[in-house]
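The data are quoted verbatim here:
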Amino acid sequence: MRNLTLLTDFYELTMMYGYFRQGKTDEIATFDLFFRPFEESNFCIAAGLEQAVEYLENLHFDCEDIDYLRSTGAFGEDFLQTLRDFRFTGSVRAIPEGTVVFPYEPLLIVTAPISQAQLIEAALLNIINHQTLIATKARRVCYAASPASVLEFGLRRAQGPDAAIYGARAAVIGGCSSTSNVLCAEMFGLPPKGTHAHSWVMSFPTEYDAFKAYADTYPDNCLLLVDTYDTLGSGVPNAIKIFDYLKAKGYKPIGIRLDSGDLAYLSKQARRMMDEAGHSDCKIFASSDIDEYVLESLKQQQAAIDIYGVGTKLITSNNTPSLGGVYKLSNLNVDGTDVPKMKISDNPIKVTNPGIKTVYRLFGRDTHKAIADVIALQGETIDDTQPLVITHPLERWKTKEVTDFYAVDLYVDAMKDGVRTLAHKDVYQLQRDCAASLDGFWEEYKRLSNPHDYKVDLSDRLYELKDNLIKEERKTVAK
C-alpha cells in the first residue's frame, strides 16, 4: 500500500508539534469518528474500514517526508528526529463494514497517544466518509432497482482514480452485483462486467456487421448495444437476427443494452419484439444517467429491464456528494484518570457526546427486527430481562418502553496496540453482511421517501454526563 502518512491537513502536524513542545505527546486520547444527519438518507452503510486499518498499519514517515517537513520551517529538528520511529500504537474499535449506522453513532473509536490520534484524523475521514457515502447511495439505487440487479459503471465520471476504485468497492458492498472497473475488479476479486460501445458499431460498415463480429468474438457472452442509430427500427431487429444466428450454432445470447431514449417505452417495445421472435430468455440491460429516483419512475411505468448499469449519479452520489463525517475528541486520560471531553456549541447539531462509548442495537426477541439503538458509555450493560425505557436524546419527554428484546453490541476490535485484529472479508461477504443488516429493519425504515424515524437514544448515564458537562461549562463561562 502507498505511504499515506502525509495525507493530512497541515494543522494536524502543527498540533503534533505543539503537543511535543508541551510534553503532551504520550497522553492517551480517544476520538470518535461519526457523521451528522445526512440529507438524502436517514441511515448510512458503514464502509472503508479495511482501507482505514491498512492505512494505520502502514503509518510511518519516510526520509523524504521528514525532509519535506523540514523545508516548511514549521518544526524543530528535535521533533523531526522523533518522526523517524513514528508508528501507530493505538487501538481501534469499529462498527463492521456493511452495517446500517445512524447519525452520531461512532463508526470508529480511536484510542492512542494524542499525537498519533491527531495525525490520522484527515485520512480516516477521507477514507470512511467516501466509502460510506457511496455504499449508502448504492443501497438506495439497488433498493429502487430490485428485483433487477445493478452494475457499477462510474469509472470515467469519478473524481479521480481512488474515488473510482474504492467507490466501486463500496458500491458492491452496498448491493451492486459487480463493476466495469477492471482495476477494482482485480484488486478485490470481482468479475469485471461490460459489453461494447457505440464506437464498435460505428467502426463497421453496418450495424449488422458490427453485431455479427461481436457475436463471433463472444458467442457465449453476447450482449448488444442497440441504440447507435435507431433502437427499434434497426438495433433490436438486427440483434434478433444475431440471436437467431447464435442459437442456430448452439449458443445462448445474453441480450441487448439500451443507453438512451425513453427507457420505459423502448424496453417494453424491445421486450415484445424479442418475445415474439422467440427470445424471451434474452435480457434487457439499461444505462443512461440513472439514479434511484429514475428507477422508481421506471418501475412505476413497468419498464421491462432486467439489469441496470449505474454510473455518474452513483459514483459521485450526485444529489448529496459529501458525507458530514467528523472526528472529535471524547476522552483524555490524564495521569491514569479518564477525563470525558465534549464540544459545546450554540448549534445543537454540533454538540458532541462525551466519554468512551459503545452502541447497542435492540432487536425484538420474536421478530429479530431492530427496535432502537442506544449509545452508552463503555462498560455499561443492558439488562434485556427487564423493560427498558427509550428516551429521545434531546426531547426528553418523548419516551418508549421496550420489552421482549435482546441487545447486540455493534463494535468489533479492529486494532489493538497497533496490531491489526480485524478479520479480512472479501467484498461479496461484506455485501452479504450488508444485506443481513438491512434485513434486520422493518420496511418503513428503509423506504426512500419519508422513512419512519428510527430511535437512537443516549443511555441515562451518558445523558447525565453530557448534561453535567454542559452545566459545568456554563458555570465557567458565567464567572
User: Anything to note?
Assistant: The chain has two domains: 10-134+321-478, 135-315.
